[in-house]
Specification:
Blueprint (H helix, E strand, L loop, with lengths): L4 E2 L5 E2 L6 E2 L3 E3 L4 H14 L3 E3 L15 E3 L7 E5 L4 E5 L4 H10 L2 E2 L11 H6 L16 E7 L5 E5 L4 H7 L8 E8 L1 E2 L2 E10 H6 L1 H7 L2 E6 L5 E10 L8 H25 L4 H11 L3 E5 L1 H5 L7 E9 L3 H15 L7 E6 L14 E9 L5 H13 L3 E2 L9 H7 L3 H11 L8 H7 L2
Parallel strand pairs: 4-6, 5-6
Antiparallel strand pairs: 1-2, 2-3, 7-8, 8-12, 9-13, 10-11, 10-12, 14-16, 14-17, 15-16, 15-19, 18-20, 18-21, 19-20
Helix pairs in contact: 7-8, 10-11
Length: 439
C-alpha cells in the first residue's frame, strides 16, 4: 500500500484513486513553528488549508485547492513516559513506524485497525478503528493532543486542559485545526492468539452475540453470492509465541489474499458473470489457521488490492438484521459483488463525533475493486444502513450531510459550536466539510 502521491501537474490523488485535487501550493513544515507560519501566510493569501496523511480516505476530506500540508517531516516519537504509560508521537508518523518503535520498547497500543499505512493524525482524525468487545478505536486511546488553530496558535488538549476541545478533536475531521502531536495510552507488550476459520454465514448470524461476547476481538468477512464467511477471533495469550511461518504467511497473506485475489478481481471486472463462481472459490481458498504473536502482527495485514469502500456503524444490536437485509438486497438486485463484506465491532466511547459515540456499535463495510462502478451497490447498501441509524465512517464513501448527522449524533451541535469558535472564518473548510458540518 503506497503513501499519498502527487500525480502529474501537481494533482494530488488518494490511495483509492476516486478523489483528486490540485492545491495552489504544498508545504511540508519541519516544525510546529513552520506550520504555524504556513497557516498564517495562507490566511493572508486568502487560501484554505488542509493537511493530508497517507491519502487512504475514500472521501475528499483532505482535498483542497488551497494549501496542502504534508506532514512527512513531522514524524517520530517525542517521548515515552513509563510512569504514566504514554507515548507522545509527531502527527505525521505512520502507524507502522509507531507500532515497530513501541515493540522495540516492549510496549503496544491496546487495539488498532487492520492496516497501518496511515499517519497517526490521519487515522485518528477520521475515526479509524479495529474490532473489539471492550477496547475501542485508535482515537479512544488518545490521552492528549497538540493542535495548531486557525490563528496559528498552539493548543494543548487533554481531559484536564481544554477538555471541551479534547472531547471533539480526537476525531476532529481536520475541521478544528491541524494536529501536530498525539499522546497515546500504551501498555506492556502482550501476545494475541488468532484463530481464523471458515464458518457458514447463517451460523455466524445465529451465534453473533455469543461470538462477540466470548472473544476480545471478533470479526468476519462474508463473501456475497455464497453462504460462507471467514471468521477471526483474537484473544490475549500467555504464550508461547507461535507466529505464522514465513512460507505459510507468504502463501496465504501475499499469494492468496493479494496476488490470486487481485487476479480474480481482474477477471470479475472483465466478465461480471463469473463473479458468483469466483466468490465460491474465494470463500474456500483460505483454510483454518491459528497463530500467536505480538499485537500489531495479529491485528494488521497487507492490503495491496486497491478498492473503494463504504462503511457504516450501526447499533450493535441491529447488525444481524442489517446483514440479512443486505444479503436480500444483493440477491434481488442482480448485482455482482466480487469483494467480501467486512463486519467488526466497537464499544461505546465518549468522543463527540466518533461513530461509536455513546453506543455499542457494529461496522458493516462494503467494497468494490478500484475502477469498477460502485454507485449502484453503495447506494442500495447505504439505504439499508441509514434505515438503522447508521453513522458513516468519516473517511469512507457516503452521501450524508449535516442535516442527517444532526439526527444521528446527539452531540453534533457541540462540535459545530466549537468549530465556530476555533475556526470562525473557515480556514480549514473544503467541500466535504461544508457538506457534513454545514457552512
Amino acid at each position: 500500500m503506497s503513501s499519498t502521491a502527487s500525480g502529474k501537474n501537481g494533482t494530488w490523488r488518494n490511495w483509492g484513486g476516486n478523489v483528486a485535487a490540485r492545491p495552489a501550493r504544498e508545504v511540508a513544515p519541519a516544525s510546529v513553528e513552520e506550520l504555524s507560519a504556513a497557516i498564517r501566510r495562507a490566511a493572508e493569501d486568502g487560501l484554505k488549508v488542509k493537511a493530508v496523511g497517507s491519502g487512504h480516505s475514500f472521501t475528499s476530506i483532505a482535498a483542497t485547492d488551497g494549501v496542502l500540508i504534508r506532514p512527512q517531516l513531522l514524524t517520530g516519537i517525542r517521548s515515552i513516559d513509563r510512569d504514566a504509560m504514554t507515548v507522545t508521537v509527531e502527527a505525521g508518523t505512520p502507524l507502522k513506524r509507531l507500532n515497530m518503535a513501541l515493540a522495540r520498547e516492549g510496549l503496544s497500543l491496546t487495539n488498532m485497525g487492520d492496516i497501518m499505512e496511515q499517519t497517526v493524525s490521519g487515522a485518528t482524525s477520521t475515526g479509524t478503528h479495529g474490532t473489539g468487545r471492550d477496547s475501542a478505536s485508535i482515537a479512544a486511546q488518545i490521552t492528549a493532543l497538540e493542535l495548531v488553530t486557525a490563528d496559528g496558535s498552539v493548543l494543548t488538549c487533554s481531559e484536564k486542559e481544554n477538555p471541551e476541545v479534547f472531547a471533539a478533536a480526537r476525531i476532529g475531521l481536520g475541521a478544528l485545526g491541524i494536529v501536530t502531536a498525539i499522546t497515546f495510552a500504551v501498555e506492556p507488550i502482550f501476545l494475541l492468539s488468532a484463530r481464523e476459520e471458515p464458518m457458514p454465514f447463517d451460523r455466524v448470524l445465529a451465534e453473533f452475540d455469543e461470538l462477540w461476547a466470548e472473544n476480545e476481538h471478533f470479526e468476519f468477512y462474508w463473501f456475497p453470492h455464497t453462504g460462507s464467511t471467514n471468521t477471526k477471533r483474537n484473544n490475549r495469550s500467555a504464550g508461547p509465541e507461535k507466529p505464522v511461518g514465513q512460507v505459510a504467511g507468504w502463501f496465504e497473506d501475499e499469494f492468496l489474499s493479494n496476488g490470486v485475489f487481485q487476479a480474480a478481481q481482474w477477471v470479475g471486472r472483465a466478465v461480471p458473470a463469473t463473479i458468483p463462481t469466483i466468490a465460491q472459490l474465494s470463500s474456500k481458498a483460505l483454510s483454518s489457521r491459528t497463530y500467536t504473536d505480538i499485537p500489531y502482527k495479529v491485528f494488521t495485514s497487507p492490503r495491496r488490492v486497491r478498492f473503494v469502500e463504504m462503511e457504516y456503524a450501526v447499533p450493535r444490536e441491529a447488525v444481524v438484521e442489517t446483514l440479512r437485509e443486505l444479503r436480500g438486497m444483493i440477491e434481488r438486485s442482480g448485482l455482482r459483488i466480487s469483494f467480501p463484506v467486512e463486519v467488526r465491532t466497537a464499544p461505546a466511547d465518549d468522543i463527540t463525533l466518533s461513530t461509536a459515540s455513546g453506543r455499542d456499535s457494529a461496522y458493516v463495510a462494503v467494497h468494490m475493486v478500484k475502477g469498477t462502478p460502485y454507485q449502484r451497490y453503495f447506494t442500495a447498501a447505504e439505504r439499508i444502513l441509514t434505515a438503522h441509524g447508521g453513522r458513516p465512517h468519516w473517511g469512507k464513501v457516503h452521501t450524508r450531510d449535516a442535516e442527517y448527522f444532526a439526527q444521528v449524533y446527539p452531540r453534533f451541535g457541540e462540535f459545530t459550536a466549537l468549530r465556530d469558535r476555533l475556526d470562525p472564518d473557515r480556514l480549514f473548510q473544503n467541500d466535504y466539510l461544508r457538506r457534513v458540518l454545514g457552512a
